[in-house]
Amino acid sequence: MTDSFWAYVGIAVAVLLVVGGVVLGLLRGRAQGPEPGPEAPQVPGTPGPADADLAPDGAIGTIEHPGEVVDTEPDTTAPPSAPEAAPGVEAPEAPAGRLRRLRARLARSNSSLGRGLLALLAGGRLDEAAWEEVEDTLLAADLGVQASTELVEALRTRVAVEGSTDEAAVRGMLREELLRLVDPSMDRSLADERVDGRPSCILVVGVNGTGKTTTVGKLARVLVAEDKDVVLGAADTFRAAAADQLETWGGRVGVPTVRSDREGADPASVAFDAVAAAAEMEADVVVVDTAGRLQNKVGLMDELGKVKRVIEKRSPVDEVLLVLDATTGQNGLRQAEVFAEVVGITGIVLTKLDGTAKGGIVVAVQRALGVPVKLVGLGEGPDDLAPFDPEAFVDAIVD
Question: Taking a C-beta distance cutoff of 8 angstroms, is the pair 351, 215 a contact?
Fold first, then answer.
């Protein structure tokens, strides 16, 4: 072989050695990974062969800072977010706020009574004719004969003893004597708490046209504002729209209504079902609406007694609220007496008290029945029903 042949063989071997070295270097570099550099991207939370580590609980995590381990598994121990209010459900105004707002309305509706009394008493001419005029003013305010006579006698005695007709002094005397007649010692609380592991039961009754179903809907708002779980019973099955109306009121504040789909259904059966449903739902209180009825209709009053008796087969009736229209004045007292005989009234709801200056009906109805006024309605708004506050009521008259 020539010298040139061996020269070509040597060159070929050298080329093979160089290529083999390059390939071997590339393979070793791929196995070891690239050297970290400033341009190497890092994805937080992505473990790799170079940075995999065990978290204290054994889970695989990434060490992003010395001594800090971030779990790659989702955190299931975080507290759940607060539940959102159901769409379309309203938050009723708290009773405390209602009292402040309604006091101003009471003052306007009874302003003529307060002004008239103060003008007479502080006029400096308290002769017999003046005292008769004071009594006439009280009678016109529906205070009632007996209560008016008592108030006049008490004021005459105090004025004679204290010898003062100063307006501030007379105002103080009038306030004290009126408050005594309204009687702040009466228990005006509602039976709205669970009793012996069952919901309390409130039966609402009244004559036609007093706004009874509306009052039940507003009462549900009062109870919801006090954080009560409420169920409504639509036992007025004779007025076509009564159940729909009550269901609408309840739906606005997320309160269920138990009703019959059949017009003219037995109201006692619906009332019974409402009480049973409230027990199953573990509600705090069930409020049963009944059909309005005239007190002189014996058959209807007997039916109302039946509704109460049927409810009592399932649960005691803890409260019977009579809804009265304050504008009817003394005419409403006979209604109240008949209802009390049939179902045993425990409290009065006076509606439309803003439409009259005859605030004395509060005293008259309490005396006639021996039960307190517990709620008053002073407007058409959904939150215009409020617990009755004797001191706020009297202050609204004399201030």
Answer: yes
29 labeled part of a ligand binding site = no
Ranges of CATH 3.40.50.300 domains, the chain: 200-391
Question: Is 46 marked as binding a ligand?
Answer: no
User: Whose structure tokens read 């769409």?
Assistant: 87
Q: Where are the beta strands (DSSP E) in 32-105?
A: 52-54, 60-65, 68-71
State the architecture of 200-391 in CATH terms: 3-Layer(aba) Sandwich (3.40)
Contact 310, 316 (CB under 8 A): no
User: CATH 1.20.120.140: which residues of the chain?
Assistant: 95-182
Q: Calculate the average pLDDT of the chain.
A: 76
pLDDT (0 to 100) of residue 83: 30
What CATH code would you report for 95-182? 1.20.120.140
Is 306 annotated in some ligand binding site?
A: no
Question: What is the token pair recorded at 288?
Answer: 């049963």
The reply to whether 134 sits in an annotated binding site is no
- Kindly give the residue spans of alpha helices, DSSP state H, lying in 76-144: 95-109, 111-121, 128-140
pLDDT for the residue 360: 80
Angle CA(357)–CA(360)–CA(365) in degrees, nearest 5?
Answer: 130
Query: 309: annotated binding-site residue?
Result: no
Q: How far apart are CA 386 and CA 396, in angstroms?
A: 15
Residue 374 annotated in ligand binding = no
| Cβ atoms of 86 and 254 closer than 8 Å | yes
- Between 71 and 199, the more confident residue is 199
Chain segment 97-146, per-residue pLDDT in tens: 666 766 666 666 555 566 777 777 776 677 788 888 888 888 887 788 88
